Backbone:
C-alpha cells in the first residue's frame, strides 16, 4: 500500500514538473493551473481516506476503543457535516477546538493515547506513510464533502477566537516583519512561482477553507491545516507554532468563518 | 394562554441573556487575548529566539487590521524610527561586489526554526527573488514586490542612487512606512556588508539585472 501510494504520488508530481517546465515559458500561472487540474482529477490523497476510515473504526490504544464515540459537535460518531462547523466551542473541554485538537481530545480520552506522543507524530515527515492524525483528519473532513462551510459564532469563546485570529492575521513580527497579510492580502501574488491565496477576498479564503487536508505533491503525503500554519511561521522565521495551540485555532476560526459558504472538497491538491 | 407565555419567557430568558452577552470583544480585550496566546503557543531552541515574536514599536504601528489605515502621525513616527535605525558599513563603501550580491539575492534560506533547531548558516540569504523579478528571463521569481529588472539602467549608479538603494534595503520604511518590504538591515536579517553587495547587484552596469 505505501509503495503504491508513493509511486502514484511520484508519477503525479513528475507530471506536474513536466507541465510546469513547458508552460513556464508561456504564462507561469496557467501552466501550474493545468498541472493542478490534472492532479485534482486523480488525487493520490484519496488513498489516505480509506486508511483514515479504518483507523476511525478500529479498536486502538491502551483503552482498546474506536473513535466511534467521538463527538465532533453533532453528537457521538456523527461525522457527516461535522467539519463544516469547525472550529466550535465544546462544553466538555470548555475550549474552542478545530478538527485536529478535537481529534486529540478523543484519542486521549476515548483511546487512552498519550497526548505528547500523538502530537510528536502528528505532522509526518515528507515521503513517509503519513500520520494517524493526517489520515483521520482527511477521512473525517471527507465525510462533509459537498457540504458548505458554516462556522457559527455564538459562545463568547468563539467570538474571542475569531477576533484573536483576525488580530493575528495582521500581526507583524520577527526579522521579516511579516504577518499573514503581507503574502495573502492581494490577488495574483506569488512567492517565486508558488501562487499565494488571496485570503482577504471571499473567493480566495473559500479556497483555503474547503481544500484542507490536502495531498502535498512535493512531500508525497497528506497535509493538514495545522501543518499549513506551522509551515508559514517557519518561513516567517518565527518560533515553532505549537500543534493544536490556540494561535492555530484562532487563525483557523478567523479563516473558516470568513470562508463560510465554501463547498468542501477534500483531499485538496497542493504542489 | 398567559401561563404558556410566562413559561416560555421563563425558559428562554436565560438563553437570551447568554446569547445577548456573547459578542465580539473590543480592541483592547482582543489584543490581550491574542497576545497571551502568542506568549504561550510557540517554542524555540533558546529563550532568546522567542523574542522574535515580540513586536517593536514600528511593527505594532504597522499591524493595522482590515481596512484601518495609518494616521499621518503614525506614518511620521515609523519613518523617524526607520531613519534613526540605519547604520552604514564601517568602510563607508556602499557598493560591494555584484557577484556576491547575485548569490545573496537568489538565496531564500537562513535562520528558520524547525523541529527544535535553528537553521545554522554562516549568513542569511537575501530573500530578494522570493518577491522581486531580477535578471531578465528568470522565471522563478515572485511578484509581491515591484520588478527590479533594469533597476540600474533606469536609475544609473550615482552615489545618491547607491545611498538610496542601501537605505531602502536596510530599512525601506524610511521611505514607505509599513510597506511589505522587510527591514532587512534594521532587523539584523542581513549585515551592512551583505547589503552593499545587493546594492552592487542592483546598480552595477555589469550585473545581470541591468542586461539590456
Residues:
Amino acid at each position: 500500500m505505501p509503495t503504491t501510494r508513493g509511486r502514484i504520488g511520484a508519477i503525479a508530481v513528475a507530471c506536474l514538473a513536466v507541465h510546469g517546465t513547458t508552460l513556464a515559458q508561456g504564462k507561469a500561472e496557467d501552466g501550474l493551473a493545468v498541472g493542478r487540474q490534472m492532479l485534482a482529477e486523480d488525487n493520490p490523497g484519496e488513498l489516505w481516506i480509506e486508511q483514515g476510515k479504518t483507523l476511525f473504526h478500529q479498536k486502538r490504544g491502551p483503552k482498546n476503543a474506536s473513535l466511534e464515540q467521538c463527538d465532533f459537535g453533532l453528537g457521538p460518531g456523527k461525522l457527516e457535516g461535522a467539519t463544516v462547523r469547525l472550529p466550535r466551542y465544546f462544553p466538555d473541554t470548555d475550549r474552542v477546538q478545530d478538527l485536529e485538537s478535537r481529534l486529540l481530545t478523543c484519542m486521549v480520552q476515548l483511546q487512552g493515547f498519550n497526548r505528547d506522543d500523538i502530537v510528536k507524530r502528528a505532522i509526518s515527515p515528507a515521503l513517509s506513510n503519513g500520520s494517524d492524525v493526517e489520515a483521520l483528519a482527511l477521512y473525517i473532513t471527507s465525510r462533509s464533502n459537498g457540504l458548505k462551510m458554516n462556522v457559527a459564532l455564538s459562545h463568547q469563546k468563539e467570538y474571542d477566537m475569531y477576533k484573536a485570529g483576525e488580530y493575528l492575521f495582521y500581526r507583524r513580527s520577527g526579522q521579516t516583519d511579516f504577518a499573514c497579510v503581507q503574502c495573502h492580502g492581494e490577488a495574483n501574488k506569488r512567492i517565486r512561482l508558488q501562487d499565494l491565496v488571496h485570503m482577504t477576498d471571499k473567493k480566495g479564503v473559500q479556497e483555503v477553507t474547503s481544500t484542507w487536508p490536502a495531498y502535498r505533491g512535493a512531500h508525497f503525503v497528506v497535509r493538514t491545516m495545522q501543518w499549513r500554519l506551522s509551515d508559514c511561521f517557519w518561513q516567517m522565521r518565527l518560533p515553532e507554532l505549537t500543534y493544536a495551540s490556540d494561535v492555530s485555532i484562532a487563525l483557523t476560526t478567523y479563516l473558516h468563518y470568513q470562508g463560510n459558504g465554501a463547498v468542501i472538497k477534500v483531499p485538496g491538491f497542493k504542489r | 394562554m398567559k401561563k404558556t407565555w410566562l413559561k416560555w419567557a421563563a425558559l428562554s430568558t436565560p438563553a437570551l441573556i447568554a446569547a445577548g452577552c456573547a459578542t465580539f470583544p473590543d480592541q483592547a480585550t482582543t489584543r490581550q487575548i491574542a497576545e497571551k496566546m502568542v506568549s504561550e503557543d510557540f517554542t524555540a531552541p533558546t529563550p532568546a529566539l522567542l523574542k522574535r515574536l515580540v513586536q517593536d514599536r514600528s511593527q505594532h504601528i504597522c499591524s493595522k487590521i482590515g481596512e484601518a489605515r495609518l494616521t499621518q502621525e503614525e506614518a511620521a513616527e515609523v519613518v523617524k524610527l526607520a531613519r534613526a535605525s540605519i547604520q552604514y558599513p564601517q568602510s563607508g563603501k556602499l557598493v560591494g561586489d555584484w557577484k556576491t550580491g547575485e548569490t545573496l539575492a537568489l538565496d531564500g534560506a537562513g535562520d528558520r526554526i524547525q523541529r527544535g533547531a535553528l537553521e545554522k548558516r554562516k549568513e542569511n540569504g537575501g530573500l530578494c527573488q522570493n518577491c522581486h523579478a531580477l535578471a531578465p528571463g528568470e522565471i522563478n521569481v515572485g511578484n509581491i514586490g515591484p520588478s527590479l529588472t533594469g533597476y540600474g539602467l533606469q536609475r544609473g549608479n550615482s552615489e545618491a542612487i547607491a545611498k538610496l538603494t542601501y537605505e531602502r534595503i536596510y530599512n525601506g520604511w524610511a521611505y514607505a512606512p509599513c510597506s511589505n518590504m522587510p527591514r532587512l538591515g534594521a532587523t539584523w536579517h542581513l549585515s551592512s556588508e551583505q547589503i552593499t553587495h545587493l546594492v552592487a547587484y542592483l546598480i552595477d552596469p555589469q550585473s545581470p539585472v541591468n542586461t539590456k
Notes: The first strand of chain A starts at residue 88 and ends at 90. Confidence is low (pLDDT under 50) at residues 1-27 of chain A.
